[in-house]
Amino acid sequence: MLAEAEPLPRVPRVRRLALDRLRGIVMVLMAIDHASGVFNAGRLVTDGATLYRPGTVLPAAQFLTRWITHLCAPTFVFLAGAALALSVNRRRALGDDERTIDRFIASRGLFIAALDPLWMSWVFAPGHVLLQVLYAIGFGLVAMVPLRRLPDRAVLVTGLVLAVAGEAITGLVLAADGGTPGIATGLLLTGGQFGPVIVAYPLVPWLAMMLLGWWFGGFVQRSGAERARGLVAVASLVVLATFLLVRGADGYGNMRLLRDDGSLVQWLHVSKYPPALAYTTLELGLAAAILAGLLSATGPRDTVAGPLAVLGQTALFFYVLHVHVLVLVGRALHLEHATGIAGAYVGGLAITAALYPLCARYRRYKRAHPDGWARYL
Questions:
Q1: Rg (CA), the chain
Q2: How far apart are CA 139 and CA 102, in angstroms?
Q3: d(Cα 35, Cα 354) in Å, to the nearest integer?
Q4: What does the alpha-carbon distance between residue 350 and residue 35 come to, in Å, rounded to a whole number?
Q5: Where are the alpha helices (H) located in the chain, listed in sequence order?
Q6: For the chain, how many structural domains are there in total?
């Protein structure tokens, strides 16, 4: 019987902290991007073939301010998959049956997905239903209910195939749609606007990243610290080399957002909407490199979570509050789209500092009530 099975080994705290701190780093970057969206009059959003006109000048400071935040969504989704794998193993060890685990995964996924249309849309896109990263994570979790039963190798292969063949699959489906995506194609593959509904994060390419994260979470569960650190270090080199090949070839894998020239800005100007193979390999490669550093820097006695770990452990809580506060401050001070690039950094760091004490209190509450409502947030 499952309840009588030998408990699985717990993941050492140092590795959990490394994952939390990586999530915390991208939380800070995310806050900078969203503060830029509220305050920065010169903010660039050209990261998709339908958003960019070839030859458009991309000022380096504005471009790089946007570009550094590209790391956020792929890391969130990848770590959501890794956290799910660790959570499922822990629940099994505690004696939860598979149906109970499935119900929680599905219900939490639906809750997270519902936050986009019901809570986030009215600050990000008033008058529209905007489906962004919470839609992708939420329905990705729902999809993981059956997919988590695949063998680990099948999960890894599926994630890699969806990431590498995503552009080809999208092209075939678009051809069947007559070249113009319908709502189903938009929700799953291409994104786009369909009346009042804007799909910014189509499910399938982001699900590929979650599958890779699930596989990595299982690997972390089974491996020692040295093997985990070695894997992410090697993976970062392989994945970044793949980016160089794909972006250098300037053809397949770029979702038609091609380079205008050989400048660094154009090499980094990859398609996020929808995510191209070049985008996925660049961002996950960078995330792996940072994680390798965090795993190396976190010593075996370092069991006290610092500020980055606090943010990483309360990421969704921070996410559902910070944009609303930024918008309210922008309106109250008449600063909406009224500052330069400094507004992005000052606003992002200020909102992070302002919400940090609340995040720390929320973490304490969540730890004191592990089976309460807070486990959904």
A1: 20
A2: 13
A3: 13
A4: 9
A5: 13-39, 60-67, 72-93, 98-115, 121-124, 133-147, 152-176, 183-185, 203-222, 225-249, 264-268, 277-297, 307-313, 315-332, 342-368
A6: 1
Give me the sign of the Cα torsion angle 131, 139, 119, 352: negative
Give the span between the Cα atoms of 49 and 162, in whole angstroms.
20
Contact 202, 189 (CB under 8 A): yes
The pTM of this model reads 0.94
Per-residue pLDDT of the chain (377 residues; tens, 9 = 90+): 233 333 334 555 556 789 999 999 999 999 999 999 999 999 999 999 999 999 999 999 999 999 999 999 999 999 999 999 999 999 998 899 999 999 999 999 999 999 999 999 999 999 999 999 999 999 999 999 999 999 999 999 999 999 999 999 999 999 999 999 999 999 999 999 999 999 999 999 999 999 999 999 999 888 866 788 899 999 999 999 999 999 999 999 999 999 999 999 999 999 999 999 999 999 999 999 999 999 887 554 444 348 999 999 999 999 999 999 999 999 999 999 999 999 999 999 999 999 999 999 999 999 999 889 999 99
φ, ψ for residue 56, nearest 5 deg? -65, 135
User: Rounded CA gap, 80 and 74, in Å?
Assistant: 10
> How far is CA 329 from each of CA 41, 186, 218, 322, 357, rounded to the nearest angstrom?
16, 34, 42, 11, 18
DSSP helix/strand/coil, 251: strand
Q: Which domain holds residue 223?
A: 2-376
210 is written with which tokens?
Answer: 């979650």
Distance of alpha carbon 288 from alpha carbon 264, whole angstroms = 21
Q: Are 213 and 80 in contact (CB under 8 A)?
A: yes
